[in-house]
Every structure is written in structure tokens, then in C-alpha cells.
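Lab notes, practical 5.
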Amino acid sequence: MNKIVLTCIICFTLLTSNILFAQEMTSPEMADVMRSEGKIYVVVAILVIIFAGLIAYVVTLDRKLTRLEKKITDKKG
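Output from the prediction step:
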């Protein structure tokens, strides 16, 4: 049973990759238009803000968890 599933997955992957390679390699027109109008910088700035916010959230969450873990270990010990 496992060999059949593995064979099906491999066949699906090979067929999918063949379809993806059949696409033309052209430059994205939307990126060129946005770059020429200066809007690409707005998109990049928004992405940077989002990633910075996510990183700040993860750091603060890590600090809170570290404090909680320390309190738990202090109570036990």
C-alpha cells in the first residue's frame, strides 16, 4: 500500500513539474509598471513594516514565555 501511494506521489510531482517548466520565461509586466511609476517602493515598504511587526511580536512573545517559564521553575524549585 505504501509503495502505491509513494509511486502516485512521485508521478504527480513529475507531471506537475513538467507543466511548470512548459511556461514561458518572460519578465513580469506588473513589476515593471510598478517600478516605473515608483509604486514598487511602497509595496516593499509595506512588506518591511509587516515583517518588522511580526518579528517584534515574536520577540515580545518569547520574552513573556521566558518569564513564565522562569516563574514556573522558581515555584517548583
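Observations recorded by the TA: Residues 25-77 form one domain. The chain has a mean pLDDT of 83.
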